[in-house]
Design goal:
By secondary structure, the chain is mostly helical. The chain is built from five helices and no strands. Helices cover 80% and strands 0% of the residues. The chain is globular and about 45 Å long.
Length: 136
């Protein structure tokens, strides 16, 4: 992907805004008790933060599986980001798929409350990494 510096900054900002919007949606629907939908929104919130990270660093990824692979290879295995974020990202992807496609699976408040908090922390870590990498 060939972007000007201004385009790159704008696209990263747009991905992070979408991440924030999806996390807000997760929080709203959590108050209604729609935990499978919460899992979906939390996953996509993290996904868009990761997409912003990729754009920031010049990685072009087109699939969810590809995003998980690149995230693991470029940020987790290198020690750039904490390994716990790689585990959480994989967990979120699996959970979202179960909630969206498995008709007999239902997640719960007890499962999702800690995941929401961890996901918010992961997104904050990604935003901080982007901020500091752009200030160098």
């Amino acid at each position: 992907m060939s972007l000007s510096e201004e385009e790159r900054i704008l696209l990263v900002q747009m991905q992070l805004e979408k991440s924030d919007k999806f996390m807000q949606e997760a929080l709203v629907v959590s108050e209604m008790g729609y935990w499978n939908l919460v899992a979906n929104r939390v996953y996509y919130s993290v996904f868009h933060a990761v997409a912003g990270l990729f754009i920031n660093d010049g990685f072009d990824v087109h699939t969810h599986k590809g995003a998980a692979t690149v995230f693991g290879q470029k940020y987790i295995l290198t020690g750039t980001l904490d390994a716990k974020w790689g585990k959480l990202y994989s967990k979120l992807q699996s959970l979202r798929e179960k909630c969206d496609y498995n008709v007999i699976y239902e997640t719960s408040e007890a499962e999702m409350r800690p995941i929401i908090k961890e996901s918010q922390e992961m997104i904050s870590a990604i935003k901080e990494f982007i901020r500091t990498s752009n200030n160098n």
